[in-house]
Amino acid sequence: MTGYIKTSTIAEALHLSRKQTLERSRAENWANVKRKGGLEFLENRLPEAVRIALATKETQEPESAGDNGLSQLTDKARETAQNRSALLHDYRNSGLKPADFVEAYNSGQVSKYLLKELGQISVRTLYRWMQEHKEAGAAGTIALAALAPRYGIKKSGAGVTLSSVERQLLRKFWLQNT
Fold first, then answer.
1. Shared-domain flag, residues 23 and 80
2. Which residues face 40 on adjacent strands?
3. Number of domains the chain is built from
4. Angle of the 123-135 helix axis to the 98-106 helix axis, nearest 10
5. For site-directed labelling of 19, which of 70, 84, 137, 175 has its Cα 20 to 30 A away?
6. Are residue 84 and residue 130 in the same domain, yes or no?
7. Which domain holds residue 52?
8. Which helix (H) or strand (E) holds 50?
9. What is the number of other CB atoms lying within 10 angstroms of the CB of residue 49?
10. In whole angstroms, what separates CA 95 from the centre of its chain?
11. Would you say residue 154 lies in a domain?
C-alpha cells in the first residue's frame, strides 16, 4: 500500500461520517498530511483494521453488480430462505417476546404453512436467523441469501477454497511484492 487516502474514502470504508473518521484519527494519532483543504492519511501508516476495511471495500465494489450468492442456491434453499424471512417478518409484526413468539409458532398459532415448511424452531434459532439477517443488511437478496440453509457447506479442512474476497485480500497484503 502506498500513497495517500482521502478522509471521505476511509469514512466510506468504515461506514462512518467524515466527522467521526476525523475524530477517530485524532484519538488514534493516524499519520496525516493537510492537502487541498482537507486531511489525507498515509496509507501504509493506517491501523490494520482500517487498511483491511479499505481493501475489503475495493474488492467488493466490482462484485456489487451480482446477486451476491442468491443464484448459487438451489430452489429448495431459496424457498427455505424465503420462508425464514417470512417468519422473521411475522415475528417483528407480532410484538411478542422471542420466547413467546416461538411458543406460539411451534403450537401452530402463527402460521401453519411456515410450521409445515420449516418445522419447529427454538428461541436460539430465531435469534441466529435475526442476527444473520441483520448482519447481511436486512434487505434484498443479500439478506435472503444469508438466511439460506448451509447444509453440507464445509467450513474448514481439505477441499475448502478461499472466497474471491479472501483471495484478493491475500494478493493485496501478502503477495504484493512477489
1. no
2. 6, 33
3. 2
4. 120
5. 137
6. yes
7. 4-60
8. helix 48-60
9. 10
10. 26
11. no
- In angstroms, the CA 47 to CA 32 distance is 12
Structural contact between residues 111 and 53, judged by C-beta atoms closer than 8 angstroms: no
Which amino acid appears at position 63 of this protein?
E
For residue 41, is it within any domain? yes
The closest of 7, 2, 1 to 33, measured between CA atoms, is: 7
Residues facing 39 on adjacent strands: 34
Cell 443464484 locates to 71
Q: Are residues 48 and 115 in the same domain?
A: no
Q: Are residues 50 and 12 in the same domain?
A: yes
136-166 pLDDT, tens per residue? 775 566 777 788 887 755 555 555 566 777 7
Fill in the DSSP letter of residue 110.
S
Of 125, 68, 61, which is closest to residue 91 (Cα–Cα)? 125
Give the Cα separation of 20 and 130 in Å (integer).
Answer: 28
Please state the rounded mean pLDDT for residues 50-63. 66
